[in-house]
Design brief:
Family: Belongs to the LysR transcriptional regulatory family.
Radius of gyration: 31 Å
GO molecular function: DNA-binding transcription factor activity; sequence-specific DNA binding
Pfam families: HTH_1, LysR_substrate
Number of domains: 3
Organism: Ciceribacter ferrooxidans
Helix content: 40-55%
Largest sheet: 5 strands, mixed
CATH architecture of the largest domain: 3-Layer(aba) Sandwich
Strand content: 5-15%
Order of helices and strands: HHHHEEHEHEEEEHHHEHEH
Protein name: LysR family transcriptional regulator
Length: 314
Amino acid sequence: MDQENLCMKMARQLPLNALRVFEAVARHMSFTRAGEELGMTQTAVSYQIKLLEENIGEPLFLRRPRQITLTDTGARLAPKVGDAFRALHEAVAGVRKSSEEMLNIHCTATFAARWLARHLGSFQLENPTIAVRLETSHTLIDFARTETDLAIRWGKGDWPGLRRHFLMRGHFTPMLSPALAASIGGITKPEDLLKLRIIDPIDPWWKAWFSAAGLPDADLAHRQSSKLGAQAFEAAAAIAGHGVAILTPEFYSDDVALGRLMQPFDILGDDGGHYWLVYPEARRNSPKIRAFREFLRKTVPTFDVEGQKPMSGA
């Protein structure tokens, strides 16, 4: 017998709905009050008790005018059924509590390293009962197949079935170490960048940026290719003086302040991709998701609580 047929047979043998009604009637010793608790009519309660009695083959209650009492069979059954339903309630409550204590976040590696890791400590100080598990990758995870509660994604926000909130624009610009810039006498015009090694020249951000800078024909195709897999790694290579990286400048303000990186031009590229908070629509009222959403609202100036499109001027 396969698992599905076994479950169906057990369901027929164990009338859970009728047992739930019996537990309420035995506790209240009243069909009427049990019905009020369960949202059922007295007739429906009586019907469920009749079904259970037929299933067991014994009467469970003695019906007297304005009063019911348990039979010997009912008296033996009532405490065991009560204990079973209490155990079920405790099990469900325990799982629900455990679920609300752990917030599973999926995030791109760069956003995790350059923004999220710096702010998660503050979130946990504000929400000491919520632990955080962080997973990073560039893969779009399927919420139905993982334990992930919410994700921070880069893209255009076109993910059907997900509630999305705009976080910040994903614009980009060249950045490099001041020492590397000084090695060619400084960077004064966009063409000067072509004198240096370009980190990942096949990244489409480069073509978009040079077009925005007035150099749509910049020759990038014949340069030595290198693909480091994440913006955070490209930034580390740029800080080490190994070339010019195309980066999201908001993530590297500390490195600029410390003199490890410089942004030679105010020109910003934008290909329509931005950072978003996303989660399944059905989980929008989860307390832990509400807590993280509220934290982002207070922490990220451009966060859009209503969440469908980038805020104008952001």
